[in-house]
Structures are given as structure tokens and as C-alpha cells.
């Protein structure tokens, strides 16, 4: 069964990158400093490096997990900024090897790349992109690849079945928070079911199933009124 | 060796309570709704209920862990709002059974309660309270009990050796975030060492050693420039 899954690396204080920057050389900005610290574990992983066409890397629990999670994906959804940002670095053979649906306001022809990656530009919104990706995934999962705001919008729209967080052991103190703007209204919560935890020295991986938003109830047994 | 440890229950999106409320009946506010959802795991724990003087509760991994963590503590530091808020519910035998140092602006005589709990009111700041608690802990740990802003201030002051987070599997969408105002300056991060993870269906416990704030470095091997 196809799951829509979102997967992001964040710091323990919840940031997926440093403060947003519009510098021309992004890699010199605090945004990039934070981003590269948080994603270091995957950049070190042999499986990820191989998929990106980079040499080296560590054979490790982290590398195995990255490979396992990636193997589940049949199609991808991403935001326009991420797709644009990747267009240079990903080169002629982007690391997706499957259909990618880019949420954008700008019409553009589908781009077919080497290695089986295609980029389809979807101008009628995130939910349409997810629906198209579900069709294309052929029973495998749809990964909301990012960036952070696209993940937020997908969670807020109730479209994410599974949330995978890779928690890097660092406090950044500032930056762009992943779990903001989630569309949960006051007095409600969106309940999750913890499915799996993988713990290493470099990162803690948390896998949750995402439930529906539901009213919080007054469970004041801890307030002293619940005394038996 | 005495460690200064901070321990809080938070939602996956980082909140220790709902939005701050000044309602007279706090338990009816969204702040309390969030707080009681997040702390439900410990209110269900037999060891915690016993310490609070409440009947019932579950014998569980969570209960054992709560007991184990509590047994390490020789003295406590807390903020004024938490101490005031507890004064009613904790009754004549508060659940600390040791010296508590309350950071406040208001001078007040030390209060000695039944069961070995004392409240000493410290008017010359958090670091002084922590120093006094270290003396009083007799080789055991000093627990920064809360509330959230006191934990933040202690982390920002570089006074916390160990951070224990109990992550409740819920997205609240709004509230008071624990890991804010940490005094980390732009381009820096405070590195942590993951020490332990305990995973249950109700909560995920993460234990970190807290390191020094250090400059982030440009690790752009994942940007395409690091191609080998």
C-alpha cells in the first residue's frame, strides 16, 4: 500500500536549516552552515553518497537505514525552491531514479533526465502533486522530499501518513523550524504512533505514523485533583 | 560526580505546554490541555504516582525509568512560577524529599516541609541557585525541574550537563517551546552527545550530554562541490 511519507533531518531544537538566506552564494550563509551540520550524518553515509554519485562514505547503521528508506519510494513530491536549488548540483542524472512532482506556480514541460528521474511541474497545488505521485508510485511510497515548508503544508493538509525525523544531536538556537505552521487549531493535537527508533552516536531516527487531529481532553490527574 | 541535569516532557513539535495562560482556573486553559497531554506518560506511571501520593498507575518501562532518573537527584532548582503553582497541589509533603532552590525576586524564609523537602528562595540569580544546589546535592545530581524558561536560562548559561527529553507522540501546533532562547549565536551550535534512547508506545526518552557552543564549519560535501 502506498504511504505518503515525509522525511527530514532536523536539529534537536527542531531546525532543518539555519535562518533563511537569499545570499547569492548560499553555501556561505548561516542557512547552509546549519543545513550541512544537520545533514552531516547522511552525507557521511555510503549509500547516500553512492546514490548521489559521490565516492567514499561510511558503511554504517545510518547508511543501511538511508538505503532501506529510499528503496521504499516510488515517486517524489517537492517544492519549487528545492527543485530549483538542486537543478545544478544534481546534474544530468539526478538521484531520484523515478518520477518527481514539483509544486510550482510556473508552467514548464516535464523534464526527463538520465537514470529514470523525471520532473513534472504541477501548477494546481500540493494535493494535486501528491495525487499524481500516488498514481505514479506504482504501489510504492510517495516521499515528500522537502523543503521544510512543503512538508509543513502536507502535514497541515492531512496528507502525510508517516513522518520520519532524523534528529542531529545539536542545538542551533535559530533557523527554520520544520514543525511549525502545522494547521492544528487551539485545543487540538495531531496524535502520532511511534513505530520505530534507531539510535546512533551521529543521529537518532524516529519513525511515526501520523493520525488525525483530535480535541485534547482535560486529563488533570496530575494536578492534584486526581488524587485517589 | 554531580551532574546538573534538566528534564522535560515535550511534544514532538517541541512544546512543554499549550500557549501561556493567565486564567484563574489554569486547568481549563489551552495551556493545561497541552501540558496534561504531554505529561500523560508520567501521570500514568506507578512510580511517579506513588511519589506524588496518588494511588494506581502502570508498572511499565516508563515507570521504571522515571524512578531511576528521580533516584539520581540530590537537590532541585526551579523557577518561581512553578514553585508557586505547586504550593497548593504538592500539599504538606511535596514530592521532592530533598532541598529545592527556587529562583525568585522575592525574599522569603526557607520552608521546611514533611518528608525532607525544603524550599530555599534564592534572590541572586539562577547560577547562584545552581551553585547552592550543587553543594546540597551531596554528590548526587542537581535537577533543573522547570519550568521551561528556567531550563532555557540554565542551558543558555552553559550550566546544564545533561538534557533529558521525554517526547510525547503528538503535534500540538502551538504553545510554549522548550528549546528556544538558548543563547546560541548565529553560525554556532551547541553539540550534544546522545547517551541513551528508551522507546515506548507512549513516549520516547532521549538522554544527551550537553557540550560547549562551537562554531559551525562549512561542511559542503553534500552540495555537489564535495564530489570526489
Automatic annotation (TrEMBL), chains A, B:
<dbReference type="InterPro" id="IPR024072">
    <property type="entry name" value="DHFR-like_dom_sf"/>
</dbReference>
<dbReference type="InterPro" id="IPR050765">
    <property type="entry name" value="Riboflavin_Biosynth_HTPR"/>
</dbReference>
<protein>
    <submittedName>
        <fullName>Dihydrofolate reductase family protein</fullName>
    </submittedName>
</protein>
<dbReference type="Pfam" id="PF01872">
    <property type="entry name" value="RibD_C"/>
</dbReference>
<dbReference type="InterPro" id="IPR002734">
    <property type="entry name" value="RibDG_C"/>
</dbReference>
<feature type="domain" description="Bacterial bifunctional deaminase-reductase C-terminal">
    <location>
        <begin position="4"/>
        <end position="199"/>
    </location>
</feature>
Amino acid at each position: 500500500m502506498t504511504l505518503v511519507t515525509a522525511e527530514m533531518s532536523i536539529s534537536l531544537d527542531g531546525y532543518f536549516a539555519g535562518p533563511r538566506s537569499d545570499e547569492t552564494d548560499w553555501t556561505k550563509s548561516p542557512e547552509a552552515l546549519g543545513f550541512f551540520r544537520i545533514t552531516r550524518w547522511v552525507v557521511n553515509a555510503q549509500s547516500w553518497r553512492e546514490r548521489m554519485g559521490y565516492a567514499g562514505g561510511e558503511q554504517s547503521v545510518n547508511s543501511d537505514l538511508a538505503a532501506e528508506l529510499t528503496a521504499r519510494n516510488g515517486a517524489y513530491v517537492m517544492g519549487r525552491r528545492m527543485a530549483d536549488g538542486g537543478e545544478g548540483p544534481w546534474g544530468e542524472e539526478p538521484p531520484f531514479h523515478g518520477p518527481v512532482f514539483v509544486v510550482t506556480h510556473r508552467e514548464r514541460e516535464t523534464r526527463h533526465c538520465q537514470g529514470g528521474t523525471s520532473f513534472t511541474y504541477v501548477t494546481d497545488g500540493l494535493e494535486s502533486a501528491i495525487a499524481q505521485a500516488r498514481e505514479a508510485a506504482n504501489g510504492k511510497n510517495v516521499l515528500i522530499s522537502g523543503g521544510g515548508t512543503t512538508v509543513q503544508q502536507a502535514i497541515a493538509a492531512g496528507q502525510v501518513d508517516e513522518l520520519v525525523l532524523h534528529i542531529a544531536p545539536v542545538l542551533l538556537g535559530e533557523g527554520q523550524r520544520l514543525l511549525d505552521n502545522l494547521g492544528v487549531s487551539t485545543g487540538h493535537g495531531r496524535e502520532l504512533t511511534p513505530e520505530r527508533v534507531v539510535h546512533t552516536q551521529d543521529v537518532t531516527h524516529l519513525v511515526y505514523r501520523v493520525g488525525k487531529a483530535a480535541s485534547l481532553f482535560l486529563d488533570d490527574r496530575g494536578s492534584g485533583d486526581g488524587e485517589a
